[in-house]
Amino acid sequence: MNNFNKTLLAVAVTLASSQAMAAGFQLNSQSATGIGRAFAGDAVIADNASVLSRNPAAMALFDEKQLSMGLTYADVQVEVKDVAMGDVHFGSVNDAAEAKIIPNFYYVSPVNDKFAYGVAMFSNFGTGTDTTELSNNIVGGKVPAPIDLLGKTEVTTINFNLSASYRFNDHFSVGAGVDVIYGSGVLTRGGAVPNPQGGDPIHMDLVDVDADGIAFGGIVGAVYEINADHRFGVSYRFSPEFSADGTVNYGGTDFEEINIPIPDIFQVAGFHQLTEKIAIHYTAQLTTWGDFHEISVSDPIDAQLKHYAWDDSWLYSVGGTYTLNDSWTLRAGYMYDQGVVGEISSISIPDSDRQWYTAGATYNLSKHTSLDFGIAVIRGEETDLVEYSAIYQQTPTPINATTLSNATYYSMQYNYKF
Fold first, then answer.
1. Which among 127, 128, 148, 136 is positioned nearest to 91, based on CA atoms?
2. Who has greater pLDDT, 296 or 411?
3. Closest Cα partner for 153 from 264, 17, 244?
4. Which residues form the signal peptide (predicted)?
């Protein structure tokens, strides 16, 4: 694994950090156009260069160079309520996540009527929750909070992608790309415990991780065009297991690396221009969250830091586009996003099924320049969970909590055709 200079990457990491508002800690924030239509059909619509985040084969649909860049402001609300062990209550956190700004950049360049290439920068995964304020609660001066379950959890990834496409004929195109993925993680667990000698409580650090690293993944895709008005796209993104180094302390032992598996993403999409003004589009996407079974540390020994045992999940979205006039294009969409939590739930990464309600628009400033706007209202479900703490006795003790994750995304994007 290669190391990055953290000083050089500080700005990029700050911008890319984000609280997940899709299943697990997956992000759906790669473009303003995608947000406006709930990412329905995004693997094949190819109305701007941001299609590169979903399907490299769709670059074959371009006949001129295009640039897209944008920002998404994610206003996230995560509540962790009524953390309790039986009748002992440790409190609630009403705002366990921070709002974030998520950037993106895409450039697509056709070489001739067969080949095209593109470069991109975006993020597919990220999470950030902080329940540290509960970790110093000692109820009745005797019962500490479950400090092994409470603290800060932040995972950030940023993709640097280089892709190419090839058109076989008027109907079939393929594409492939390489992802260089920078990842960083912060994980802290600890807090106050009673002093066995009496007096002030003792602060105990159980986990202290601040690490980063790089890994390599890839994507392959295809597009089939019945004609200019009806087409289908498919893609598969291969994701690596991350090994990051830095500060990795677990149970008082310094480890060399923390290992975080990242799931693969498979999606199929369709687009149909029904009339001169109206189009419909849709997507089904599978994310192999079953691969995210644990976070572990390694060297000098291998040890399990956190067990998750999540399930694979699907999302389904449908959207519509309406061309109002030469200046304005309107869009809207709906997404149903399955949660990933199976038998083992977690306070640190709250999850549930989510509903996305989205709208957006494109304004054409000129023949070459346009602006995209998108907004998504995301609503999760209130979830009662049980997680087991090991700090009280030899047998893990059940801790109950209720979590709720909602968000609103505001996104803007600049597009230029050369």
1. 136
2. 411
3. 17
4. 1-22
